[in-house]
Here is the input.
Amino acid sequence: MKALQRIPEMQQNAPYVLILYYSRQGSTQALARQIALGVSQSGMEVRLRSIPSLTSDSSPAASSRDLSCTLEDVEQCQGLALGSPTRFGHMAAPVQHFLEQWSGLWQRGALIDKPAAVFTSSQSAHGGQEATLLGMMLPLLHQGMVILGIPYDQPALSNTLEGGGPYGAGHIARQQKSLCPSERQLAQHLGLRLGQWAQRSGTSREPA
Here is the structure.
């Protein structure tokens, strides 16, 4: 996508924000790319990584197009955006499964005080997006991360008739995967805010 073409290549050993997501049909992936664009606008490097499916079938998940995330990717990040499609008001099983592997990060306090944000997509306007966003925040709070949302100084937050809210970026897929203008604006702003907070937190913490 054009948005990613404008994101510079990550320099080796440079501090980065991790955009971590699972996407079955491509809607959550589209949000991830807009958030990545917003992070890059802050001057921070971006590392876009996916969570693999738990099962294999003839139709691979859209997220398989990006490199799979490792625990090292998570531990070394300076900020994190976590995304999942909504599954009955909850995060998708691959995301839950991956988060359950973070006990070592928790024991080491590897993510304490690092900023984090969440994003999701659903097929309908009342598909459980807020419940999914809140649910994804809980494991990040247990890790000691600082959760960022979207403040109401963003006009699109009050005017949107589609996805996106104070808890995080969102997309209502309906019959199309493309994001509407307000969804793109809110996702990019969330990424920009996350990148700015990652820069601040990086200057106040001892190097890993």
In short: Residues 2-204 form a domain with the Rossmann fold fold (CATH 3.40.50.360). Residues 181-204 form the longest helix (24 residues). The chain has eight helices and six strands.
